[in-house]
Amino acid sequence: LSLTPPPPSSTPRQGRRQRQMCIRDRQYVMKRYNPKGLVYELAHKGKMSRARKSWINAHLLRFIGIPTPEPIALIEKYPALGERCSYFISSQVQGQSSWDFFCSNDFSDDKSRHAADELVGTLKRLREHRISHGDMKGSNFLIGEAGVWILDLDALLQHKQTRTFKASWKRDKKRFLKNWDKKVCYEPWKHYFHQQFLDTDGG
After folding, report:
1. What distance in Å separates the CA atoms of residue 167 and residue 85, rounded to the nearest whole number?
2. Does 177 have pLDDT greater than 50?
3. Helix segments in 47-200, DSSP class H
4. Which three-class secondary structure string do you get for 120-157?
5. Which residues pair with 89 in a beta bridge?
6. Cα 34 to Cα 150: distance, rounded to the nearest angstrom
7. Which residues contact 158 (CB under 8 A, 6 or more apart)?
8. How many angstroms separate the CA atoms of 126 and 64, rounded?
9. pTM, whole model, 2 decimals?
10. In the predicted model, is pLDDT for residue 4 greater than 70?
């Protein structure tokens, strides 16, 4: 199987480029994690690439039963001179971002409420395993017929100590709840999510 890295025209997103591709009738997503400059590379020399972090974290989540797209391949390039780059390839899953889903679905709809319950349950399972995500914006949660999927795992971390996890969980919770301040259509969902996370301190 030959995999061609994405060209410069791929969609840039927060230090990475992303493109969809089809191989033997299966859909995949390839992310290229772009170098952040020579100073950054020297400071992080010898450390794990963000693509490798995504690869490891995807296997971790799937092992403990938290849905995330299937990891397919990891590619890392370490030239003798110059900046390194890395690629993470996963299966593509169908669905809407949580932003789009909750804005276009009514709070009174049973299907929507079930999706909200599933999303909350997924986040609470992360908490049970002392896992922080690091970037809980609405676009990193995909909602489809198969359920709720977690995306963008390069900042995800399973903590060994409760103390460090509590601090990270507090930041995650704050970022997640901030998602629902953006539009009027989120107002009932904002109240619902605040109620669900009222007593969760990461302990």
Report:
1. 31
2. yes
3. 50-63, 98-104, 110-128, 162-178, 187-196
4. HHHHHHHHHCCEECCCCCHHHEEEECCEEEECCCCCCE
5. 30, 73
6. 22
7. 60, 129, 130, 131
8. 10
9. 0.83
10. no
